[in-house]
Amino acid sequence: MRVNENCVGCGQCTAFCNFDAIEVRGKATMTSACVDCGTCIAYCPVKAIEA
What we know:
With 51 residues, this protein is mostly beta strands. It has one domain (2-50): Alpha-Beta Plaits (2-Layer Sandwich). Helix content is 10%, strand content 24%. It has one helix at 39-43; strands at residues 2-3, 22-25, 27-30, 49-50. A hairpin with a 1-residue loop joins strand 2 (22-25) and strand 3 (27-30).
């Protein structure tokens, strides 16, 4: 998964990540725990997460 420039740092994606693989420090970033499941994509309100 990749976070694009649309990210506003709302953190909504973190609530739905089953692997605690998203950190938000200003904007979201994926950690090495990300398994590319794609669940976060559906919950991003600004479509900032891409496969």
